[in-house]
């Protein structure tokens, strides 16, 4: 059941800044990500969360250490910290762009895309351009785009950062539903302690630069998670514990 999906071994990352200074962004990162696991990563700004996701997505290379994928590493969905939509394409064209590039515009995938747009509250905006959307709507298009081709692994860098509290809760529940249905492996960066506790199987707490893993907290709350759970003692205790570890 709990087979490893990604093995991260002693990963270090040193950036050379434009003024020649060296920035140690990640130190000795060791982590086994299990298949179908939901992991959140929290930690102060600049501790290397985005760097770690970028390295996993092969958009950057570690200075040392290794990443081993159980299956191929090419089936990754990435939701960036900024929505990064193509401004000359409409909502619909942006959302289906990966299907187009991968040449998998099958009937099933197109129907799934419609469903995702509906779930994300984007019905009626298919023909709008990114500049005509709010920041939260743009981010929702980016999430739909990442889910459009049904990747095994989803790397999400503060995907809900630009959303209002209510939409954020709704998207969280929706993401959990998709995760349960499709057994995806998810790595989710957030600044919200309560969001991390609510969504995850495990929460990785990182310390300030040079970014390393401070502690890993197992969240043993039952599934499916419901909004009401946020008022239970167990949940409140997890939030408290995470806040303590974060300092
Ligand atoms: N391309 C780069 N060149 C030089 N330094 C970089 C580069 N990218 C990131 N860094 C540095 O690496 C460190 C980690 O950055 P990273 O973006 O991973 O942090 P983060 O944890 O995602 O922060 P935030 O919560 O603000 O998004 C920072 O000190 C940053 O200045
Ligand atoms: Mg970041």
UniProtKB/TrEMBL annotation:
SUPFAM superfamilies hit by this protein: P-loop containing nucleoside triphosphate hydrolases (SSF52540)
InterPro entries per UniProt: AAA+_ATPase, ABC_transporter-like_ATP-bd, ABC_transporter-like_CS, ABC_transporter_ATP-bind, P-loop_NTPase
Annotated coiled-coil segments of the chain: none
Origin: domain of life: Bacteria
GO molecular function, one term: ATP hydrolysis activity
Gene3D superfamilies tied to this protein: P-loop containing nucleotide triphosphate hydrolases
SMART domains reported for this sequence: AAA
Domain spans labelled ABC transporter: 6-229
Keywords: ATP-binding, Nucleotide-binding, Transport
Stated name of the protein: ATP-binding cassette domain-containing protein
Organism: Paenibacillus foliorum
């Amino acid at each position: 059941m709990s087979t490893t999906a990604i093995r991260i071994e002693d990963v270090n990352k040193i950036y050379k800044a434009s003024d020649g200074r060296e920035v140690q962004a990640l130190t000795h990162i060791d982590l086994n990500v299990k298949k179908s696991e939901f992991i959140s990563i929290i930690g102060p700004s600049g501790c290397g969360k985005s760097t770690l996701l970028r390295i996993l997505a092969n958009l950057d290379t570690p200075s040392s250490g290794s990443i081993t994928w159980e299956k191929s590493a090419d089936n990754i969905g990435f939701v960036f910290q900024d929505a990064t939509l193509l401004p000359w394409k409409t909502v619909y064209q942006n959302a289906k762009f990966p299907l187009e590039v991968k040449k998998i515009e099958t009937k099933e995938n197109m129907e799934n895309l419609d469903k995702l747009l509906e779930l994300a509250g984007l019905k009626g905006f298919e023909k709008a351009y990114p500049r005509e959307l709010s920041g939260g709507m743009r981010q929702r298009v980016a999430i739909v785009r990442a889910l459009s081709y049904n990747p095994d692994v989803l790397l999400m860098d503060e995907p809900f950062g630009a959303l209002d509290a209510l939409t954020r809760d709704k998207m969280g529940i929706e993401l959990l539903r998709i995760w349960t249905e499709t057994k995806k492996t998810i790595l989710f960066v957030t600044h919200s302690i309560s969001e991390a506790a609510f969504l995850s199987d495990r929460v990785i707490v990182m310390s300030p630069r040079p970014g390393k893993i401070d502690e890993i907290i197992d969240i043993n709350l039952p599934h499916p998670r419901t909004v009401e759970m946020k008022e239970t003692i167990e949940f409140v205790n997890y939030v408290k514990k995470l806040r303590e570890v974060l300092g």
